[in-house]
Each structure stands twice: as structure tokens, then as C-alpha cells.
């Protein structure tokens, strides 16, 4: 596999301006802020639950239970990490894209993913954590990200399948998150979903082109479908019966659909798309149920899923090594940004004196 293009995986902490604060400096909220957050009490908790039940949006300055805040930090940081790590499998193919048009589109897509990660990191900062803390958790191997990005991209067809399957699954999940009870997270999803729709169309076009190409091209894209189908279904997380967080997130309307509901929605959307380009999904148990109007599917290998999230997937170590290398290589960028910010503050203080 080609060496990761580190320049396309720049560390995002203290690099770009925050879309929430307009500053390249970390927000004032940090671990100190989380320690001073008021403790839960019955009256406030009851008022909070009433707001959730009424469908109101919770904003950063609103009181919230500590458990709600921690669930959001966990969920949003994992989401942001996934966007950043997700740049790596596709960045490896930029120099090998078959045409200038494909190369430009793939560069734009990888750039979009960086922006998505930035937006979600900034949203997480409104909950009282610092972006650099979250990035360090990823680099230390203490944070999780989507299991799908621990699989290798072995052919150009994988670029199409990632757009079709992986970004398609992200759209199913994120359109629901655009209605999340936490305002900054929901608003970030609106922009992100628009860009993900472009990514899916780009991927599906690649797939359709290969599926209607030479026998070798069709074989290549079918082989890619076979490798990515089941890992994509695992993207939605464990089954509802084994998910420790789903019930609570549903109750607080952070999520509006369960893992299994979202997975089924994705399958129902994707099967007709596969039929349209004459590709076969690798599931002999796939069958349409006219009564439920769902496509019934076979058993997911949850042992494989659990191994990947434990760090034993095909590319777990490679992905973290690439992120750590990019972080180290980008130290001068962070130092320059901090020095520039300090210089601007001094200039403003001098002008105000």
C-alpha cells in the first residue's frame, strides 16, 4: 500500500478558525470548566427532561445533566475522529486516480472530510472540552472512531464503494443527527449532510462506470462490494440488544433512531441501487419482505466487529501511526499559529492602551 500523504492529514488542533468562535485559539472552556459545571439536582433535571420532551433545542449555555454532556462529548469526539481518520484510506489513492477529473474530485472530498472533523471538534468544545485534549486521546489510542476506516483500500473501485456504501451509511445516520437535541451538533450536521450527498453521488458514479465497463472493471468493483458490504453494516454499531448507549441517547433525543433501525434503512435504500447497476450484494439470505417492506438480511459477524474496535483490525495500527506522524510533522504549524495569535493579541492590547 502506498505511503499515506501526510500533507492531506494535517492536525486540526489550533490550525483553522473555529466556525463557532471565529478564532484560531482554543475556546475558553476546558477541563477546568467541566469541573465547575453545576451538579445535577432534581429540579433542574426535571426541567431539562421537560424541555427534551417538548422537542426544544439544548444550547451550550443551557444547564444540562452531566451524563448528557459526557454522552455528547463521547459521541461527537468519536464522530470527529472518524472524519479525520477517514481521510487516510482515500488520500492514498489521490496520486493513483485514473484521470485528472477523478483526482480533483477526490482531493475535494478529502478536504471536505477535514472540514467535517473541524466542525464537530468545535461543536464538542462548546461542551467544556478542548480540541487538543480530544486529539491527544485519539493519538494515545484511548479514543474510538468508526470501525470502517480500519479496512484497507486495495483498488480504485474501493473509492467508489466508500462513496456509495460508507458515505451513504453516514448520510442515513447524519440526517437523523441533524434533528439531535443538542443545537451545535444538529446544525453542524446540516452542512455536513449536503457535502456527504455529493460524496455519495461521486462514489456511485465511479461504481456505475466500472460496473458498465470491461469485464475486468466489473470484476474489480464486484470484488470491492464483497469486501465492504458487511463492514459497512457494522458501521451503525452493535445491535440494539447489545448497545449500552442507545436507549439513553434515544430518551434524550440525541438520536432519533436506533442502530438497527438505521441499518435497516440503509439496506432498504442500497439494495435497489445495487440492482440498478447489476451488482450482487454478498448476502445469500437477502430477501424482500412484502409485509414489512424491508429487505431481510443475514447474520452480521459481530466477533469481527468487536476485534476491530478493540484495535485488532487490518489497519488499526497503520491508521494511528499515520495520524501521529501527521501530528508531529505539523507541530511547526501549531507553533506558528500560536505565535501569530499572540502577536495579534499584543497588537490589539497596544492599540487599546
Which secondary structure elements does this structure contain, and how are they paired or packed?
Layout: H1 31-35, H2 42-53, H3 66-85, H4 87-91, H5 100-125, H6 131-139, H7 157-177, H8 183-211, H9 215-234, H10 246-251, H11 259-276, E1 287-289, E2 294-296, H12 302-312, H13 316-329, H14 331-352
Antiparallel strand pairs: 1-2
Structure description:
There is one protein chain. This protein is an all-alpha fold. The protein is 62% helix and 2% strand. The protein is built from 14 helices and 2 strands, in the order αααααααααααββααα. Strands 1-2 form a two-stranded antiparallel ribbon. α3 runs antiparallel to α5 and α7 crosses α11 (259-276).
- Point out poorly predicted stretches: 1-37
H/E topology pattern? HHHHHHHHHHHEEHHH
Largest sheet: 2 strands, antiparallel
Distance between the termini: 57 Å
Rg value: 21 Å
Q: Which of globular, elongated, flat, extended, rod-shaped describes the shape?
A: globular
Q: How many distinct helices?
A: 14
- The helix/strand class is mainly alpha
User: Approximately how much beta-strand content do the residues carry?
Assistant: under 5%
Amino acid at each position: 500500500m502506498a505511503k499515506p500523504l501526510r500533507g492531506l492529514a494535517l492536525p486540526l488542533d489550533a490550525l483553522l478558525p473555529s466556525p463557532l468562535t471565529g478564532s484560531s485559539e482554543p475556546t475558553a472552556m476546558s477541563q477546568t470548566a467541566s469541573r465547575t459545571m453545576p451538579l445535577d439536582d432534581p429540579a433542574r433535571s426535571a426541567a431539562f427532561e421537560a424541555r427534551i420532551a417538548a422537542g426544544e433545542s439544548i444550547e451550550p449555555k443551557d444547564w444540562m445533566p452531566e451524563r448528557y454532556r459526557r454522552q455528547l462529548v463521547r459521541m461527537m469526539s468519536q464522530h470527529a475522529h472518524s472524519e479525520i481518520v477517514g481521510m487516510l484510506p482515500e488520500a492514498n489513492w489521490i496520486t493513483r486516480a485514473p484521470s485528472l477529473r477523478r483526482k480533483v474530485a477526490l482531493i475535494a472530498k478529502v478536504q471536505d472530510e477535514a472540514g467535517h472533523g473541524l466542525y464537530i471538534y468545535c461543536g464538542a468544545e462548546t461542551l467544556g472540552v478542548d480540541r487538543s485534549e480530544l486529539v491527544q486521546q485519539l493519538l494515545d489510542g484511548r479514543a474510538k472512531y468508526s470501525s470502517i476506516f480500519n479496512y484497507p483500500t486495495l483498488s480504485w473501485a474501493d473509492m467508489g464503494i466508500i462513496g456509495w456504501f460508507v458515505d451513504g451509511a453516514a448520510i442515513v445516520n447524519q440526517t437523523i443527527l441533524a434533528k439531535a437535541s443538542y443545537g451545535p451538533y444538529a446544525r453542524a450536521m446540516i452542512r455536513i449532510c449536503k457535502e456527504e450527498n455529493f460524496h455519495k453521488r461521486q462514489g456511485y458514479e465511479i461504481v456505475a462506470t466500472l460496473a458498465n465497463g470491461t469485464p475486468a472493471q466489473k470484476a474489480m468493483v464486484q470484488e470491492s462490494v464483497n469486501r465492504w458490504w458487511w463492514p459497512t453494516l457494522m458501521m451503525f454499531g452493535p445491535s440494539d440488544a447489545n448497545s449500552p448507549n442507545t436507549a439513553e441517547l434515544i430518551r434524550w433525543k440525541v438520536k432519533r433512531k436506533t442502530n438497527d433501525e438505521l441499518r435497516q434503512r440503509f439496506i432498504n435504500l442500497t439494495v435497489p441501487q445495487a440492482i440498478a447497476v447489476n451488482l450482487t450484494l454478498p448476502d445469500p439470505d437477502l430477501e424482500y419482505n412484502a409485509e414489512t417492506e424491508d429487505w431481510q438480511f443475514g447474520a452480521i459477524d459481530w466477533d469481527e466487529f468487536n476485534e476491530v474496535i478493540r484495535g485488532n483490525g487490518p489497519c488499526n495500527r497503520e491508521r494511528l501511526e499515520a495520524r501521529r506522524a501527521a501530528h508531529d510533522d505539523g507541530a511547526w504549524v501549531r507553533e506558528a499559529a500560536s505565535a501569530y495569535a499572540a502577536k495579534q493579541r499584543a497588537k490589539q492590547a497596544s492599540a487599546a492602551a
